[in-house]
Prior knowledge:
- The chain is built from ten helices and 26 strands.
- The model is unreliable at about 1-25 (pLDDT under 50).
- It has a nine-stranded antiparallel β-sheet with strand order 4-3-2-1-9-8-7-6-5.
- A hairpin with a 6-residue loop joins strand 25 (about 425-430) and strand 26.
- By secondary structure, it is an alpha+beta fold.
Amino acid sequence: MKFKLIFIASVVLTFFSCKEDKIEPLEGKLPEERISEALLASKQTLLGAENGWRGYLYTSAVGGGYAFYMDFKENNRVEMLSDFNEDTRATTMESTYRLKQVMAPSLIFDTYNYLHLLSDPDPSVAGGNQGEGFGSDYEFEFAETVGDTVKFKGKKRETLFYMVKASAQEKTFFKEGGYANQVNSITTYLKDHPNLYIQDGEAKVAVGLNPSTTSKRFSLTWTNIDGDIFTKGTGFAFSMDGLLLGEAVEYKDWKIVNIVWDASTEKLTAVTKDGKQIEILESDIPVLPLHFYLGVTSNLISVPSSGTLPLKSWSADYVTRRTQFARSIKTGGYNLDLLDMNYLFNDISKTIKLTVLIAQRGTVFSATYGYTYTKTKDGTYKFNDFEATNGNAGLITNDLDPITERMNNDTFTIEIVQDPDVGSVAQFRSKEHPDFYFSGYLQ
Length: 443
């Protein structure tokens, strides 16, 4: 029996030693050689754009689309501009990048830059959601290269990100301020003309174009004869000639893919996939009731603390409760002055960020709170899940009770009304307590 066991073992050892001698690297190359070659090819791709790259990224949680100009250097440095805000459009930021094989060749931005703003988990940094930012990535896998376009997929959130080789003219446009000036002009136009629409026969289709960093979306909103509302939209980034949509937005036989800006006439034109041009028109009044586009095209209601106060579009009950709140934080030990109260709506996530601005001996601080909300077909809002989201908010939550007693328990309508002193404002009105209403400036 011992002899047999020894014989079998020797056969097995002989078998494996023979197999080992026959192993050869695939195509004559070791795995580490193939990886090295793949990473070298990826870097050559990045460096192969002598005028840099135009980049476009679309987030998944809040926000919309964001544009970048990137110029990669041999020493693993990258220079970057972004349409995120006025500063990032005008000021070049330099950071580091590296290439690494993780299942596939990957581009990793490993020091903080404008891309990281979209992933920052602290809402006070860039306005994203607590813990997730805008729902973006800063580590990407190379997906495919088609002509002058390189497509990437975010490693954590599968964020859509792609880059297109820039021309010499486009590089100059970015680097010498032309792009920043154009984006600022379009942003100003959109803020000054919130009531845009497309004429479709007798019907008006509301056009939503919100340039806000936290809600950069294009949308079309319309109703049928039964009063049902329909909305389709997508994120957008500022492009070389206007706005580039994340995906086509369909209405009847239109598939709108981008918006062109004419700087000479200060007009916008929608362009469909088949090249049809559709004029975007301006209206002095909202085409549809506010609740159809609050959090889509207009997302901020700012309740003021200065000027002619109280506004005539505030009820006596609201004034009393606001005064109680202001007096409480003034005498409660921290000597705080109440400034503006800003309600930031996001229709995609159905959330509201309430920022209460407060001052202590001239220094301004913010206390932030969060709500979720539901909305009925006729525009009745219910605010839920109230919570303090920073330390300052926790300190004054009880002081805010006179106002949250109504906000947290009642249902509300939010409509555009005319205030005799300041003109158009967005007004919250309680349905359970009609004597409680207040208003702010819509942005």
